[in-house]
Specification:
binds guanosine-5'-triphosphate; alpha/beta; seven-stranded mixed β-sheet; five-stranded mixed β-sheet; 2 domains; Ubiquitin-like (UB roll); binds magnesium ion; Rossmann fold
Length: about 290
């Protein structure tokens, strides 16, 4: 609205460059937002994303294993948005994330970013249908999201970035007729690539074993810390990747801790109780560690 004449030239030029700078900035911000996509904040010891064909029972599983209350329905394409819930495994919590079914163009970008960020992807299939075929279809959908199982590298080289993931199969609806036979066929084809966990989300069969199987697939351990002369803190384990050393545990607790540490005493996996070990000692799930500086 600024009138144009000789006296306002400079002002016009100044405003133009300001507008240019601001619009460039906002474009850059939008681009970053698009890149980072949608994600579910990770909570607990690990994040397991439930993915699969419509109606496989993903939402029913979330209902059965967590206190989340997603919509469950007889018809497909019920879930529109991802929903997390916390599943208990002994003294820790593992996060499960229910997602809209694979295969829909409209939500592929959203599902992609959730799958890529997951610690593991659990492909949920229906044992009352054709589960082996459903796995094959789901794997193709994951590949379209550039998510590739670590245990099943692509035959041809893929151009561009890929996201290698640990994948498990949850074979749901084990209560349905034909499930036994279909599970056999599924195992025959995929057992050498993925852990296969058979469950019935509605009847409860296999659900007691599911948390431990997912814990194993996450490849993490729980380590309890103890201060010299005190009882171990058994309430809040430190979660570490399997094969972690005492030094890595110290680092996880505090960055500076590792440097000052001279030795540690470990109860549990050591050959003897209260075994004195160095920084390179590899820890096991359930170990109690006492650091000495
Ligand atoms: N018999 C049987 N039915 C099940 C089982 N699990 C889920 N269902 C049923 O299957 C239907 C679909 O379940 P949902 O949990 O909504 O399936 P979903 O995979 O979330 O479906 P979308 O959101 O459409 O992708 C519902 O009618 C459930 O009650 C099971 O273990 N056995
Ligand atoms: Mg659903």
């Amino acid at each position: 609205m600024l009138p144009r004449h000789k006296g306002t030239d400079k002002l016009h030029a100044g405003l133009r460059s300001k507008i240019a700078k601001l619009s460039q900035e906002s474009e850059r911000k939008a681009a970053t937002a698009r890149r980072s996509g949608f994600f579910i904040r990770r909570e607990g010891a690990g994040q397991v994303v439930l993915a699969g064909a419509p109606n496989a029972g993903k939402s029913q599983l979330l209902t059965a294993l967590t206190s989340a209350t997603p919509e469950v329905a007889l018809y497909p394409y019920t879930t529109q948005a991802p929903l997390p819930g916390m599943m208990k495994f002994e003294d820790i919590q593992i996060q499960l994330v229910d997602t809209p079914p694979l295969g829909q163009r409209g939500v592929r970008a959203l599902i992609s970013s959730i799958l890529r960020a997951a610690d593991i992807v659990a492909i949920v299939v229906d044992l009352g249908g054709e589960p082996a075929h459903e796995v094959e279809w789901s794997l193709a959908e994951l590949a379209a999201c550039r998510v590739i199982p670590r245990s099943m590298p692509p035959e041809e080289e893929m151009t561009g970035g890929i996201y290698p993931k640990d994948v498990v199969i949850i074979a749901n609806k084990s209560d349905l007729p034909g499930a036994y036979h279909n599970l056999k066929a599924l195992r025959l084809r995929y057992e050498s690539f993925f852990p296969i966990i058979a469950v019935s989300a509605t009847q409860g069969d296999g659900l007691d074993r599911l948390p431990v199987r997912l814990f194993e697939a996450l490849r993490i351990i729980r380590v309890y810390t103890k201060a010299p002369g005190q009882k171990a803190d058994m309430n809040e384990p430190v979660i570490l990747p399997t094969e972690s050393t005492v030094g890595e545990a110290a680092e996880e607790i505090h960055k500076d801790f590792k440097k000052g540490m001279k030795y540690a005493v470990v109860w549990g996996s050591g050959k003897y109780q209260a075994q004195t070990v160095s920084k390179t000692h590899v820890l096991q799930d359930g170990d109690i560690v006492e650091f000495h500086v």
